[in-house]
Design goal:
Number of domains: 1
Structural class: alpha/beta
CATH class: Alpha Beta
Strand order of the largest sheet: 7-6-5-4-3-2-1-8
Number of strands: 8
CATH superfamily: Aldolase class I
Order of helices and strands: EHEHEHEHHEHHHEHHEHEH
CATH architecture: Alpha-Beta Barrel
Largest sheet: 8 strands, parallel
Bound molecules: 1,3-dihydroxyacetonephosphate
Length: 256
């Protein structure tokens, strides 16, 4: 068994009012209790960070955001800084999600600035990488993942790399119900770990958690989570309801 603790993170995307978010997180917290076998993170929209953060006080569930701006403050209408997230006791932030790359034209260079700013402010980045269907079909998967990973992590030191989480999210599997096969997922996860070993050394690569994201559900999670290089999940749809999210936490806890 790997020494890496499994991590299950819920990406709520643009869902739930603050009141709905608090109800969901209260259900999660009361069911999770004092379990420490799995690290659990919830990433609500910005508007619910404060209320969800308060509901998480003293719980074994960590708070994450879905995006951040690299500058500490200034004239960036509509944006949120690392310091603002830290003030709500967020400890993680999703960076470079494919929805942000696609709909908001985020580039690898901009994503890299966010990663560096987050690490500087003691916020753990969950850096997302993944290919589109067209890229997979044309045999470009590993090349695309390598570019996104290496550009996103440029300038990150070996020491800080252990605070980074990577999420492999094949774009064609997100919200589509089409999950990557365990072989497809494990192949890319092993490739990512080999790249981390090349760039940061084997010992560091062995410490970094690599999550799978894309239609992960309680039914397919046990098989995915038992792969050698799959250290958890970044969950969209199935994180919006306490039962399925908690079943995913249980599935992660059950992997030996
Ligand atoms: P789904 O689990 O809804 O496919 O979303 C995955 C995702 O994008 C998590 O960031």
């Amino acid at each position: 068994m790997s020494s890496r603790k499994k991590l299950i993170a819920g990406n709520w995307k643009m869902n739930k009012t603050s009141a709905d978010a608090v109800s969901l997180v209260q259900e999660i917290v009361s069911a999770i209790g004092k379990q420490t076998d799995v690290d659990v993170v919830v990433c609500p929209p910005f508007t619910s960070l404060e209320s969800v953060g308060k509901a998480l006080d003293g719980a074994n569930v960590k708070l994450g955001a879905q995006n951040v701006h690299p500058e500490p403050s200034g004239a960036y209408t509509g944006e949120i800084s690392v310091g603002m997230l830290r003030a709500f006791f967020a400890s993680y932030v999703i960076i470079g999600h494919s929805e942000r790359r696609t709909y908001f034209a985020e580039t690898d260079a901009f994503i890299n600035q966010k990663v560096l700013a987050s690490l500087k402010g003691q916020l753990k980045p969950i850096l997302c990488v993944g290919e589109t269907l067209g890229e997979r079909e044309s045999g470009a998967t590993l090349r695309v993942v390598q570019t996104q990973l290496e550009s996103g992590l440029e300038g990150v030191s070996k020491d800080l790399m252990t605070s980074v989480v990577i999420a492999y999210e094949p774009v064609w599997a997100i919200g589509t119900g089409k999950v990557a096969t365990v072989e497809q997922a494990q192949e890319v996860h092993a490739f990512i770990r080999a790249l981390l070993a090349k760039n940061f050394g084997e010992a560091t690569a062995q410490k970094v958690r690599i999550l799978y994201g894309g239609s992960m559900k309680p039914a397919n999670a046990p098989e995915l989570l038992s792969q050698k290089d799959i250290d958890g999940g970044l969950i969209g749809g199935a994180s919006l309801e306490s039962r399925s999210f908690l079943d995913l936490v249980k599935a992660a806890a059950a992997v030996k």
